[in-house]
Amino acid sequence: MGEEVTYRVGIPVLGLRGENLGRLEKVLFTESRHQVTGLVVRSLESLHIVPLEKVTSVSGTEIRTHLTPNDLHQSPVFDPTQYEEVPPWFFPPGHHIELGALVTIKPLDVREQGEESAVSRRAFMGKSVALLASAIGISLLVPIGGYIMAAATTPVTDNWRDLGVKLQDLPLDEPVQRSFRAVSVSGWMRVPEDRSVWLIRHSGASDPWSEPEDQKKNLDSPLEEGHADPRLTVLSPICPHLGCEPQWHKGQKLFICPCHHSIYQLNGKVIGGPAPRPMDQLPVRISPDGSIAVIYEQFAIGIAAKVRLA
Amino acid sequence: MGQKIVEYLDERVRIRALMSFLLNEPMPGGSRWAYIPGSMVLFVLILQFITGMMLAFYYGGTPDHAWDSVNYIDHLTYRGVPVGRLIRGIHYWGSSIMVIAVGIHLLQVFLWGAYKRPREIMWLVGTVLLALTMTAAFSGYLLPWDERAYWGTIVGTNMIGLIPLVGEAIKDAIRGGVGLGALTLSHFFTLHTMILPTLFILFVMLHMVIFRRVGPAGPFSGTPEQNEATKDTFYPRQVLMDSFGMMGVFILILLLAILRPPGLESVANPSNAAYNPTPAWYFDWIFQLLKMIRPEIVGVVGLPVLIAVVLVLLPFLDKKPVRSPFKRPLSVLSTLFVLVSMVVLSIMAENGYKKLVDVDRAAMARGQVVFNQSGCIGCHTVFGKGGKIGPDLSEEGLVGHSEHWLTVQFVNSKAHFPDSIMPDFTYLTKQQQHDLSMYISSLGRMGWPDPTKAQ
Ligand code: FES
User: Fold this and answer.
1) Contact partners, residue B140, CB within 8 Å, separation at least 6
2) Which end of chain B has fewer CB atoms at under 10 Å, N or C?
3) What span, in angstroms and rounded, lies between the C-alpha atoms of B381 and B370?
């Protein structure tokens, strides 16, 4: 080793007494040993394999061996159909070979069955691999998809929250913001949090302001329709535009959102600004003694339809 | 279409050359079933990565949430399919199968003499991967934060504390304090989900790169010329064999996950001094051996050191090129001896544990009705509800009473405790006694409330 060996295709191969045996045609590479193990020499009649042990010296101009012409004649014939060229990354260290000259023996089944049927057999095996791999992949990905969706699709349960105020204590035709304690559930965790709603007690059922815009426009779901009360409207504090919180302006008698100035009337109707729909009405239940309970729903932001977030 | 993509990539990243480099690796002597264990390890490792990431989606790594989050995962269903239990089951059984696969891989490499020159460094990287596997198994054990996890980790880390001079410091560093607590859990979680996977990826890559440098060892018999003459490429035959192996392993893990889903004991209770922790089955033999070696310190320090030294030094001490196991009787016999001792020790350890009753869930549900209606709950508390005259039974299933012991206790408690004031429930039918014993055996082990159903 040490010194780099250069094999140059076409240089003469000399015998024991310096006679010309032929020319270097190819270099034989034993792939499973990562070693060059022989040379292919073209003599007048054919191609012969010379094992590396028989080679005494290699230089840029000639290769010396201790073979007689007869020895060469006895050595195995090189059958090009049994060999293939080696890709460059397999070049053994310490050897420099002109491209296209390094060959290695083909895999067994290619040699035995011939190129064509071996290739189709190999293609069949390749398909079987793909089949098995996809079977494993699919049977893993399906439960994983379900696993991820399982939490995403956990149904929200509707909880009636008592607001701790009585209807008779609310001012007439004047929105009041009322906060209450809610529980937000996320997976295994329940976090108490503060929520608020607007309460608007109407002076009379005939009052033109008493009917929420949602009802007029038929935006409500059965839940909200089933739990509406002409005496009281409950509005979500969340602006349907982009989720800010509109404030009640006493002087103008309007809700105005500070973010992009959507303007709403007392019943939630939009009369200005970018909001795509009225303020969202929430389901309400009033007991005979006047105590008020609501379901705190949340809806998709930025669209004209009132779509509940699951 | 596919052809076009290949052309596009070939022009830019030489995909064809890359693929043929990866797939046309020569296999001296041809493909064999004996070569699949390494691929099996890699497959299970990938499975662990995927399911582990999934578990981390819903896991809460603090003592006040870890147990709840695992219980939540156990109850996650999608269209009626218990996906959470399935994913956790794959991860749980995957760890056991991974330990087995690593063991088989190590054994095969040893018997084939494949660790010998020039593959010493590859073997060393392999021992690092073995250590990583064991550490991953140990650190994952704590994460559900149930009784078994807590007490198992107490014992495991205490053993580290026995190491002279540095032991205490290492133990406290691992625990993040003197006792087990929030920091221990986040330490273990970080170790299990960040440090170990990173190291796994690095060392697996190193293992593979070296593998490609030195090539597969090939069969232990036959001359190089014969092996060259019968050689095959890695793709497709060996890949196909590997795929069949993976399919088999996958089905095995899936079956285990479905038929024997992992349990969850009641939440870690540091005051439950009666709890008797048992190690994971693959540590059984060490557990048993440690019981036999006295003084204890010799075993605790000596055993792992001995194993490490033997594994690390092996390829450097055993330099004879002969690979065939038939010509290395000493190696084979000592391997056999070690294997048999491991099995015997494990069986001894398992026999030493109190067997928990296999609970039949239907009977358990009926037993709960008996418990609530036959007056038991008048004296005994279960999960905070019930009387205070008798002992709290919330974790009674973990004590390890046999069904026979329990039925005797129901009808004649004085047989066990002469001073017992418990009435003899002789009017219970045989069926009711069975159901009740199933229910009692389940306490502290299963039947947790479903957190996905809002109350
Ligand atoms: S968020 Fe209210 S107007 Fe834009």
Assistant:
1) B95, B192
2) N
3) 15
Measured distance CA(B234)–CA(B30) in Å, rounded: 9
Is the backbone peptide bond immediately before B236 cis, with ω within 30 degrees of 0?
yes
Nearest to B66 by CA among B175, B189, B159, B164: B189
- CATH 3.40.309.10 for domain B2-352, yes or no, is no
Query: Is A259 touching ligand 1 by the criterion CB < 6 Å?
Result: yes
Whether residue B215 lies within 8 A of chain A, CB to CB, comes out as yes
- Residue B249 with chain A: CB contacts under 8 Å: none
CATH classification code of B361-442: 1.10.760.10
Q: Write down the pTM of the prediction.
A: 0.86
Query: Which member of A30, A148, A154 has the closest CB to residue B224?
Result: A30
Q: Which CATH class is domain A5-111?
A: mainly beta
Domain with CATH 2.30.30.240 in chain A: 5-111
Residues B248-287: pLDDT tens digits?
999 999 999 999 999 899 999 888 877 888 888 998 998 8
ipTM over 0.95: no
Strands (DSSP E) along B10-67, which ranges? 26-27
CATH of the domain spanning A153-295, picked from 2.102.10.10, 3.40.50.800, 3.40.50.300, 3.10.28.20: 2.102.10.10
The distance of B25 to chain A (nearest Cα, Å) reads: 9
Cβ distance B247 to A33 less than 8 Å, yes or no, reads no
Residues of A with CB under 8 A from a CB of B: 30-34, 87, 89, 104-105, 107-109, 122, 125-126, 128-129, 132-133, 135-136, 139-140, 143-144, 146-151, 153-154, 157, 185, 187-189
